[in-house]
Structures are given as C-alpha cells and as structure tokens.
Amino acid sequence: MRKLEAFPYHHVLVLGLARSGTAAAKTLLKNGKQVRVNDQQLTTKSTVVQDLVALGAEIVLGSHPLSVLEGIEIIVKNPGISYDNPVLIEAVKRNIPIVTEIEIAYQLVPGTLIGITGSNGKTTTTTLTTKMLEESKQQVKVAGNIGIVATEVAESLTDDETLVLELSSFQLQGTIDFRPNIAVILNIYQAHLDYHKSLENYKQAKYNIFRNQTEDDYLIYNADDSDITTAIADTRARRIPFSTTREVQNGAWSDGEAIYFQNEKIMDVEKIVLVGDHHLENILAAICAAKLAGATNEGIERVLTTFAGVEHRLQYVTNLQGRYFYNDSKATNMLATEKALASFKQPTILLAGGLDRGDDLTGLIPHLKNVKGLVSFGETKEKFNEVAKQAGIPHVLTAENVEDAVQKGYGISEENDVILLSPACASWDQYRTFEERGDMFIQAVHKLL
C-alpha cells in the first residue's frame, strides 16, 4: 500500500461515508491519522462502521452536530453533501479546509495522472482514453466519478501505471493541491445550479482541474468553447487544443473526412462506430490525452473501430422490426438531449421526462425538427406535452413511467424510426439513479421482442 507522505494534517473529519468517504477514512487511518467519522444515515450495526471502529476511528452517527469540528484540522466530505450543511458553514468560519476524496487520492499517485471533466461527455472520454492506452499496451487504471473510488485504486498503483480520473464539479470544488499531469476540460454548460448556486461557482469548480498545473503539465481544452478559452488564458500548463470546426496547432481536429493530431493523420472518420456528432469532441479530447500518455495510432484505431458507446450514454440497444432503440438515460439536462437528437437524421420518437427542477424546456423546441412523436413521463410530463404542442409534433402521448413509454413509443413508430430515451431530466422522481432508469428502458425494449 502506498503511503500519504505529503498530507500535513493529522486530525481529520470525514463527513458522510458512502463509498468514497469510507475509502478515504480507511486510507487515513492506515496512515496513522486521527479520524473522526460523521454520518447521518448509518448506525452502529453497519459493517462499514464496525470496520472503521476496529481501525481506530471515532464515530458520530445520526446527525451533524457542530461539536464534530472540535480539534479538526481538515474535512474530507462526501461530494454529494451540500456546502449549505451547518457543519461546513461553521468550518468555513473557522478556516478549516474542506476537500473531497480525490485530494487524498492525488497524494497517493506516483506516476502520470490524467484528469477529465466537462458538463457532458466525461464518462465517454474517460473510457475512450483508458481503452486507447490499454490497446497501446500501456499500464493504466481508471477511477473517479465513473463509479470507481479513486483512493482505493491509487493505493495500489505502481510507478509505471497511469491513472485516468473522471472528475465532477462536486469533486473538483473540494481540492487544494490537486494537480493532474494531463488535464482535459471538454465543455462548460449550465448544470447543477441547485448545488453550486450560480453558473460562475460551477465554472470555478470545474476550472480547479487546471488551477495548480505548471509548465511541466498539459491542458487539453475545447478550442470551440469561448468560456474555456477565456478561462485558461493565464494557465502555466502547455495548452493542447481540440476542435471539430477547424484545424488547430499542436492539438487534434477533424476536417470531416479524417482525424489528425499534431499534423499527423490518425484515421478516417468513416471507420468510427460511435454515433453522434458530439462524440467527435470526446474522441478528439481522448486522442490528445492518450497520445500524450503514450498511446499508438494503431491502439487508438482499434478502439474507435469497435467501441460503440458507454452504457446509458446514447447506447445502442437493438433493432426491432426496423426500429432502432437507443438508451440515453444519462441525458439529465436539456443540452445532453439536444446533442442526442442531433445525432440522428431519421424520424425519431423521443421518450423524455423526470424530476422537475423548474427548467424552462422550451429551449428544446428548435432541436425537435426530426421528432415525429414524443412520449412524456414523470414530474415534467405536462411541460413536455406543452413543448411538443408548440413544436408541432404530430404524436404526443403521456406515459406512467419509462416502461410504459417504451410500449407507447413503439406503438406510434414505423420502420426506420429511432426510439430514443433521452429524458433531459434527472431520474429521482421515479428512479433512484439514471442507471436504474436506463436498465428499465432496456428491459422494456427486450419485452417487445
């Protein structure tokens, strides 16, 4: 196990367990730190709690009293806990630093660290980068917001292994020294304002990915995003742009026929199996990161000619009687749904709806030109019905849930239609996660067979 050698804090509060908090607490305890754990949900009967007690942790359960701050030098918080939490508000007043688990993981990484963030496309780009390195015979591991706790992976890394981290704004907001050797920032769109309170706060959290970089590091960025190009103006890192609209110096671009990296042709676009124009951005960003970390053109081409997408992200499911089913349950905001709709030229049946966060959905109207039918569900179903009416969509139906929407969508479809689940909303009104929602969609599709 690797040791925390540059972490100067001895008395640590871990606020909120779940997987990342548990991993951070165990790592800190194994490194001789005094750890106090505070969790509102778990009880003393929990195996996780019992394991931490056995390792020497002090446990406070059931509430978040301000007394947990006594003697604390730093807080490692679960990314999902809002900064409105009274303990965190008081910690700020007392000048106690607040970090997330990736700050601990960073201290453990001995070799190359690639960090990838953006409003959309993080998981696809992270997966592509990892696969490109694997196919190039590089030693690589993946973790972070992709669903694998970074600290657990970082503890077992060898010096010649690259760690690829998918990073959310929630994770990045809680960083102090975090510094990837290769940072990737894909795009910035309005998202998670219920957590960050303003678009500017959200942007600043994302920009933490490159804030500590030096002249020895690389910053891969979307040259077509004016917010990003403005934000990185003062970075000390070596800038590596990518663009889907024009040739760029020292980076990756496409002319529509082929993909290039630093004046070298990588492969023809027609060989790529991943559908969707927006995925070209992800592909170019991944090529930049993978090439800088040692990937070969052959390894990159093997991935791009076989990889058809990540689960729940414009994932092809099946062809039934000439209808093409796609699962894009990860589309939890309008922008993601707009990009999904732009991926198809043929008539589309859109299945959409979910948690009502108060968004004005009329912004979708210009993107519904190919939509011949809309089946709505969840809290936003009436909003979607009104949008469909304004857009002049011929077939508008309401469903009880995703499973019912599949049945009704199939009923109004014809041969060569796309039936697309791209909700434009979070899943929490009816499903625990977007993954559960996507799985229900896939199961319902297979019941049609």
Automatic annotation (TrEMBL):
Q: Which reaction does it catalyse?
A: UDP-N-acetyl-alpha-D-muramoyl-L-alanine + D-glutamate + ATP = UDP-N-acetyl-alpha-D-muramoyl-L-alanyl-D-glutamate + ADP + phosphate + H(+)
UniProt xrefs under SUPFAM superfamilies? MurCD N-terminal domain, MurD-like peptide ligases, catalytic domain, MurD-like peptide ligases, peptide-binding domain
Task: Write the record's keywords in alphabetical order, separated by commas.
Answer: ATP-binding, Cell cycle, Cell division, Cell shape, Cell wall biogenesis/degradation, Cytoplasm, Ligase, Nucleotide-binding, Peptidoglycan synthesis
The pathway that the record names for this protein is: Cell wall biogenesis; peptidoglycan biosynthesis
**Any one annotated GO CC term:** cytoplasm
**Top-level taxon:** Bacteria
Q: What is its EC number?
A: 6.3.2.9
Localization terms from the record? Cytoplasm
Residues that coordinate or bind ATP: 118-124
Q: Name one GO molecular function term.
A: ATP binding
Q: Do you know which Pfam families this protein is assigned to?
A: Mur_ligase_C, Mur_ligase_M, MurD-like_N
EC top class, in one word? Answer: ligase
Mur ligase central domain location is: 116-290
Q: What is its main location?
A: cytoplasm
The record ties this protein, via InterPro entries, to:
Mur-like_cat_sf (IPR036565), Mur_ligase_C (IPR004101), Mur_ligase_C_dom_sf (IPR036615), Mur_ligase_cen (IPR013221), MurD (IPR005762)
Q: Does the keyword Calcium apply?
A: no
Mur ligase C-terminal domain sequence ranges: 312-425
Q: Name one GO biological process term.
A: peptidoglycan biosynthetic process
Functional summary from the UniProt entry: Cell wall formation. Catalyzes the addition of glutamate to the nucleotide precursor UDP-N-acetylmuramoyl-L-alanine (UMA).
Q: Return the similarity comment.
A: Belongs to the MurCDEF family.
Designated name of the protein: UDP-N-acetylmuramoylalanine--D-glutamate ligase
Q: Provide the species name.
A: Oceanobacillus indicireducens
Taxonomic lineage is: Bacteria, Bacillati, Bacillota, Bacilli, Bacillales
Query: Which gene specifies this protein's sequence?
Result: murD
